[in-house]
Design brief:
Layout: H1 21-30, E1 45-46, H2 58-66, H3 75-88, E2 92-96, H4 99-110, E3 116-119, H5 124-132, E4 136-139, H6 160-174, E5 178-181, H7 194-207, E6 211-214, H8 218-228, H9 237-246, E7 250-254, E8 265-269, H10 272-285, H11 296-308, H12 312-331, E9 344-348, H13 349-352, H14 362-374, E10 376-377, E11 379-381, H15 383-386, E12 388-389, E13 395-396, E14 402-406, H16 414-429, E15 437-441, H17 447-450, E16 452-455
Parallel strand pairs: 1-10, 3-4, 5-6, 6-7
Antiparallel strand pairs: 2-8, 7-8, 9-14, 11-14, 12-13, 15-16
Helix pairs in contact: 1-14, 2-11, 3-11, 4-5, 4-10, 6-7, 8-9, 12-16, 14-16
The structure holds pyridoxal-5'-phosphate.
Pyridoxal-5'-phosphate is lined by residues 51, 98-100, 123, 125-126, 181, 185, 214, 216, 254, 256-257, 265.
Amino acid sequence: MKTVIEPFRIKVVEPIKMTTKEERAHYLKEADYNPFRLRAEDVMIDLLTDSGTSAMSAAQWAGIMRGDESYAGARSYYVFRDAVADLFGHKHIIPAHQGRAAERLLGMAVLGDQHVVPGNTHFDTTRANIERAGSEARDLPIPEAVDLGAQHPFKGNIDLARLEDCLRELGAERVPFVLITVTNNSGGGQPVSMENLRGARALCQQAGVPLLLDAARFAENSWFIKQREEGYADKTPREIAQEMFALADGALMSMKKDAFGNIGGLITLNSDAWAQAVRNLLILTEGFPSYGGLAGRDLEALAIGLEEILHEDYLAYRIASTAYVGRHLAWAGIPLLQPIGGHAVYLDGRRFCDHIPDEAFPGWSLSTALYEHAGIRACEIGNVMFGREEADGTWRWPDMDLVRLAIPRRVYTQSHMDYVVEAVTEVYEQRKSIRGMRFTYRADALAHFTARMAPLPASSTVSSS
Ligand SMILES: *Cc1c(COP(=O)(O)O)cnc(C)c1O
């Protein structure tokens, strides 16, 4: 059989509120044209993020009932610790309430003014936390990563030549660690190869610099390695994940992704000194080191999720269902990032809305059009998220202005995805009617979350070039 079916059946359902285009136009205006400001119940298919939006299994819900809510040393912590230890293999295992808490704690513990943290492409909160600590977050993706159409099996790889230069130039004094994100979320959900991780490991070892993984989607990365890298076809996703983690000295993880958690995060470290500093900071703001700001029941659900995420039938379905959406959109001629990533399909905002100049935010404008047309919520990862105003008042735009359709895990069926394909195709056919946007409010950091926008008059949208 060629048909890939959802490897689960549905036991509990959550109704979707159906809305009309007129209603959505109203909701969008009320939300200042920022999808983050919409009420979730006014969204029909929510592809804003795959973070914390997974459907938990019956086994996870059962684990929730078993949660031990003791303040210190709860049994649930040991269940969690053992599940993580078996997979990650690092000495210290520290729960955190989500990925960015892990980033902030590690950042505060080890980063300072003169530091540079190289990586393949830092995620937005990771970058913000590194910068908040006074350090520089330096992206060193391979050149293919910023070429939307370039076919490369491991487009998430770090550029080893540039990493070598960076380590040689700055040394261990200025580079406290290297952080590689698997899969590369900001770069399109693209995987990193084992060979690339081994190369980075060797360079780090030579320079005396620890290598850490940002492991939010480690299971999807393992699956891509199994499918695409020579020598891994017969290994299990768990064996591959263990090999990836063994190349690193520690990891940060948002467990709202590849642990099927609605909340949760993690820091693993081999360094005793760093672990101690992180735990001391954690006590100040998160709780006690055996729960890290989570409830005991969350730790149980995460431990089970870490096991379920590596099931081969799940991963085969997961990657196939994302590819299904991408393939059908590509057939309809819609410009998107190739190859299709693990957790999301990324539309090319600039080519989709080629009548809207960078200053009028083509990707963002497209995301609002998609909501108004079909009730689909997507997330811009482009000019609003990463655009920076220079000291001289000019704007610097990121290499890519993407609109991410992130697919929550085990939540939507194939007919939901067929609806998405039809909707994006219809919006593409009417794309010239999409109007550009301007800011009416912009925060200094992570502007996309709180931005207020307004559509430009139809005439001023067309680029003069
Ligand atoms: C989601 C994510 C984070 C941040 O995690 P949160 O749980 O949202 O705080 C960090 N890195 C990557 C790669 C992510 O995808």
